[in-house]
Amino acid sequence: MNKVVLKSAGCALDLGDGSERGLYVNQDYILQKMRKIHRGISLMYTYYPNDKGWPGRASVVHKQETPSGAWDYPYEDYFPYRGGKEGLRDDEPFKFMKEIRQRGQDVVLTLTIDPTLTEEELIPVAKDLRPYGRLLLRVNHECTGSWFCFNKRATYQQLADFFVLVCKVMHQYAPNVKMILCAGMFDQATGKLEMEDIFLEAHKAADIWSGDNYLSLHWGWPVDVATKETKNYACYDVDAVYDKAKATLHRLREITGQDKPMVLSELNGDGDVTGAFEQSNMMKHFMERLQKDDEKWLSAFTMYQFRDDGRLGLEITDPNNHDVGIEQPMLAMYREELHKPFFHQPIETSGKIELPAKLRWSSSEDAEGVEVDCHFNKTPHYFEVYFKDELLDMNIMMEFGGYWFYKAPGTKCVDLMSYFFEKPLSKAADMKLRFFCPPKDGLNHPYEGTDPYSAADGEWMYNSYATLPKLPEIRIEEEPVALFKHYDD
After folding, report:
1. Cβ-based neighbours of 348, under 8 Å, separated by 6 or more
2. How many whole angstroms separate alpha carbon 261 and alpha carbon 338?
3. Which of 166, 181, 207, 399 has the lowest tally of Cβ within 10 angstroms?
4. Which residue has the higher pLDDT, 252 or 65?
5. Could you count the other beta carbons within 10 Å of the beta carbon of residue 291?
C-alpha cells in the first residue's frame, strides 16, 4: 500500500451543468458517460432577493406572451439562488453542490447578483458558501456586455465597484471562496482590454481572471432559428479566439503587475451555426493547440455545457422528455481529450502508508488517497469491490486506469468491469487501484456537532478528513462462474 496525492492537471477541465439553456443532470449519469471526474462542475444561478416576484424564476413569474430573449426580464432567467436572505440551504443550488463535492469535484458557481445589494445583504451569501471547501465563484459575468439585467441597473463603474465589494465580503467571511472576474478581453485594434481602465481595480481584487469566448454562437436562440438568411449568429476563426484569450492574460499581467490563474469560463462551438460535426472539430483544434503550446498559460476552461436545450451541449435535450439526453459527436471527442495526460489530474505516490489512514480532501487538485496493487493474468470476467462493516457507510471515490468510480454511503459493491469493456488486456498486467474520501455529505465541518455555517474561520474550510479503517474486499475472477457452450468455438 502506498499513499498517493491528487495533483492539478496541465489545464483543468470544468463542465457546465445547467443554465438558462438546460436543466441540471445528476453527477452519476455524467460520470458514467465521461468515465472521469472533472476538476469542477459549473452551476449558474441568479440572486435578486428584493425584486417583485422573487424567488420565482423570471420566465415563470414574468411570463411573456411572445418571448423575446433569455434576458428580457427584470432579472436573469437562471434558477433562483435560494440561500442568502431566504436561507434555504437544502434547496437549489445547495443539493447539487453537495452532490458535486461527494463525487470528488469542486463547485464552480456563477451568480448574477443585483448590483444594488449592500455589504450586509451579501454577508449571508458568504456564510452559505463556507462549508464547500475550495469554491470558485463568478459574479456578474460578461460584465462589459449589455445583455444581462444587471447591466441595466448599474453603470460599468458601479459594476466594477460592486465586484470589489463582493471580493471584500467573501475574503472576510468565506476565505475558501476564490473570486472569478469574467470581464472584457483583449482588443487587437486598441492593444487594450475592453474597459480595462474601469475594471482595473476589479481585476486586481479578483483571485482568478476569466473571459467567455465561443467559437461560434447563435445568440438568437431560443426565439428564432439560425439560417443562412438570418444575422443572429457568428462563427469565428478558432486560432483567433485562442490568440485573443492568450493576449488577454498577457495584458492583465501588464496592467495589474500581478500574475493570477487565467480561465475561460464558457467555451464551445454552437451546433446551430456549424452543425454537430464541425462543432466537434473546432473544439478539438482548440484543445490540441492548448496541449502543443509550451507556455501553458491557461489554468482551466469550462466546457459549456453537458446537456443543452439548443446545440451547445455534449448532449442535446430530447424535446419529448427533458430527462433524456441525445449524445452529440463532440461528446466522444471531448471524453477522449479529457482522459489525455494534459487534462488529467495526475496521481503521485508519496511513500508507504498503514491502515487505519486519516486521509485529507482539499479539492479535486489536492487530496490524499491510498493505492493498492492489482495483478491480472488476462482480462478478468469479474472485477468488483465489496464494502462491509464500517466501510459500508463511507463515501469513496476510486480511480483505476484513469477511470473513476463512485461508492455512495450504503453501497455494498461497485463493479469496475466497465474499464475492461473498453480496454481489454492483451497480456498480464499489474495495475493500481486508488481510494479517495471526499466529504461524505458534501460539506466540510469544523468539528463534531458544530454548525459549519456559523464557524467564521479555521482550517476546516479548506480541508475535510476521513479515516479509512481497512481495505475493502477486491474480487478478481479470470473465468466465468459457469459456462455451457452449445455453439461452435
Report:
1. 4, 5, 7
2. 20
3. 207
4. 252
5. 14
10 Å Cβ neighbour count for 237? 11
Strand bridging mode 40-47 / 12-16: parallel
pLDDT at 110: 98
* Euclidean distance between CA atoms 432 and 436, whole angstroms: 13
Written as nine digits, the cell of 51 is: 425584486
Nearest to 262 by CA among 200, 180, 187, 188: 180
Average pLDDT over residues 407-425: 98
Report the candidate in 489, 217, 235, 474 with the shortest Cα–Cα distance to residue 370: 474
Residue 390, CA distances (Å) to 383, 443, 471 in order: 22, 20, 11
Q: CA 178, CA 363: separation in Å to the nearest integer?
A: 12
What sign does the dihedral 86-89-90-91 (CA atoms) show?
A: positive
Q: Give the helix/strand (H/E) hosting 240.
A: helix 238-256
Nearest-angstrom CA–CA distance, 322 and 325 = 7
Strands of the 473-477 sheet, one edge to the other:
413-415, 382-386, 473-477
User: With 70 as the cut, is the pLDDT of residue 489 above it?
Assistant: no
- Tens digit of each residue's pLDDT (9 = 90 or more) over 68-110: 777 889 999 999 999 999 999 998 899 999 999 999 999 999 9
Question: Is residue 432 packed enough to be buried (19+ CB in 10 Å), middle (13-18) or exposed (0-12)?
Answer: middle
Query: What is the sign, positive or negative, of the torsion defined by CA atoms of 453, 458, 460, 462?
Result: positive
Cell (9 digits) for 212: 467567455
DSSP letter string, 459-483 = GGGT-EEEEE-SPPEEEEESS-S--
Ranges 38-42, 152-156, 279-283, 443-447: which has the least confidence: 443-447
Cα distances (Å, whole numbers) of residue 330 to 18, 60, 217, 225: 18, 32, 16, 21
Q: What are phi and psi of 214, to 5 degrees?
A: -90, 150
With a cut of 70, say whether residue 385 has pLDDT above it. yes
Do residues 270 and 213 touch, judged by C-beta distance below 8 A?
no
Helix (H) or strand (E) holding 244: helix 238-256
Q: What are phi and psi of 266, to 5 degrees?
A: -145, 120
CB atoms within 10 A of CB 292: 7
| Distance (Å) of CA 231 to CA 145, 215, 224, 269, 307 | 19, 16, 11, 17, 25
Q: At what angle do helices 27-34 and 329-338 cross, to 10 degrees?
A: 80
C-alpha cell at 249: 492574460
Instruction: Fill in the DSSP letter of residue 464.
Output: E
Where does the pLDDT of residue 402 fall: very low under 50, low under 70, confident under 90, or very high at 90 and above? very high
Q: Which three cell numbers stand for residue 295?
A: 507556455
Task: Convert the pLDDT of each residue in 438-483 to its tens digit.
Answer: 999 999 999 766 788 887 778 999 999 999 999 999 999 999 999 8
Residue 372 host element (H or E):
strand 366-376
